[in-house]
Amino acid sequence: MNINKEYRRILAFQIIILILFISTAMMLPTESSSTVYSQNWGGYSVYYGSPPSNRLAFVSGNLKVIDISQPNYWDGTSHIALAPWIGMSLYSNGNPYLLQAGYNAEYFPSNGSRRYFIWVELYPYPPGILGIIDTTLVNEIDYIAVSLLKYPGQSNAYVSISIYFINGTKRDLGVVIVNGVQTEFAYAHFIVETPTIDNIIATLPSFHENITIFSNVVGYAYTNDLELTSYNVNTLIAGGNYIREILAQCVIDPDNIINNLYIYYTIFTGTMRILHMRPVTGVNEHYLFLFNNI
Amino acid sequence: MISRATPVIALLAIALVVIGVFVALQTPTSAEDTGKYLPPGFRPDVIASLNRVNSLISSDSFINELLSNSKMKEIMSKINLSPETVKEILTEKPGGSLYTMYTNASGEPSYIIQIAVGRLNTKSAMEPLSRYYVNETKLAESYIIYVKVGLKGNTLTITDLSIKKNPLANVSFGFVPAPITQCRGCDDS
């Protein structure tokens, strides 16, 4: 009888410990990452879940506008350009569909001029231009706020662009309908890119200081066909129904621009992950970017 | 006197509290969190009017107004753009060839329709830009026609029309994978 009681007490204690363990484990963000190597993308992507049960609906973030200058390394023939952007995508039957919006900064060594375009692209279709940034204003801009919105079942998406200036003023560039979106999305992307111009990957410009490119990055998903639901960051579950909010930094180290280009991002738990960018040794000498699924 | 079962009950209570906290963290914490939500950067009235404009540009009346506009006729003649191609873009709305934009950058709310076209050589006719997938080919020329319109009720009125060369004609922001052989030793430590 006593043994039976003791056994039951131990069993109950073990069950409680088990419950506590499972509860704690479920509260922690699960994290699985895989690395994909690219010659022209650096940053990270977040997998939300496969449509149609899961549909990424909205991503937004602030993009720091970079005052680009000539590169430390340049082959003398390619363009010099950098394009930070935010996007949503889905790979379907091996084909990528990617809605992305950001800006493209180009530098022309021949005359020292620069140009900045705010663009949108529904890959694999060509990009469109949403606005031009006057180069005289570049140093006065604090950041560009970019938001992408896609309602499930609709064949269009919306992109909103606002420019925030250091002096505290704001200019809404506008909202555009992107037609022809024939898919739902599963990935959120936050990427710094050297674009492909005339079928050649551009050269990465250099910088005179460490730069934080992304901030206040956030993504939401649909809970049903009708409503887009906002959740507190702490309620978002990795691998669950809602994408996590992510605070991100992309820092390019000017002292190691040839050997390494770093992208830092901070998961909401405070974990810092660092992605190293290494040059590809080979014919084209372009940089090798990594990007992670979180 | 403390019962022998008291520690078990206490532990069960703690477990229930932990589970309760966990459940609370997984569910909306306030009424604002559960309601319909339009994300930052988007206004319901802007979305509604944009949808209306985007729908009206496919109408026969607007297409006829655009194609009969003298400046549009001049542009079409200059770049060898056919009325059929313009109509195709406005009705089929292919990705990459048509954007409908709301803007108040100049202080006055307005709508701008962007029609993007391109061609492989300067002697051929202009095609919808969407016909040329990025990374697939190199365009000889690409233009964006900007049609500024006003919306009154269900009627669109053309208020301005212009054409510009597309500076992103041969630019792509697509992913270029690294050759596997060049990734040996790479890590993300």
Describe the structure.
The complex is a heterodimer of chains A (294) and B (189). Chain A is mainly beta and 294 residues long. Chain A has one helix at 2-27, and strands at residues 35-38, 41-47, 56-63, 80-92, 95-108, 113-123, 127-133, 141-150, 156-165, 170-179, 187-193, 196-197, 200-201, 214-221, 246-248, 261-267, 272-279, 287-293. In chain A, 9% of the residues lie in helices and 47% in strands. The longest helix of chain A is centred in the first third of the chain and has 26 residues, at 2-27. Chain A starts with a helix and ends with a strand. Chain B is 35% helix and 23% strand. Chain B has six helices and six strands. Chain B is elongated and about 95 Å long. The N and C termini of chain B lie far apart (57 Å). At the A-B interface, helix 1, strand 1, strand 5, strand 6 and strand 7 of A face helix 1, helix 2, helix 3, strand 1 and strand 2 of B.
For the structure shown, list the relevant keywords.
A: 294 residues; mainly beta; 1 helix; 18 strands; B: 189 residues; alpha+beta; 5-stranded antiparallel β-sheet; 6 helices; 23% strand; elongated
What's the shape of chain A?
elongated
How many strands, which pairing sense, and closed or not: the largest β-sheet of chain B? Answer: 5 strands, antiparallel
Question: Distance between termini of chain A?
Answer: 53 Å
Question: What percentage of amino acids of chain A are in beta strands?
Answer: over 45%
The number of strands of chain A is 18
Radius of gyration of chain A: 22 Å
> Which percent bin holds the helix content of chain A?
under 10%
**Elements of chain A, N to C (H/E):** HEEEEEEEEEEEEEEEEEE
Spans of at least 5 consecutive residues with low confidence of chain A: 23-33, 224-248, 266-294
* Largest β sheet strand count, sense and barrel closure of chain A: 11 strands, mixed
Radius of gyration of chain B (Å) = 28 Å
Mean of pLDDT of chain A: 70
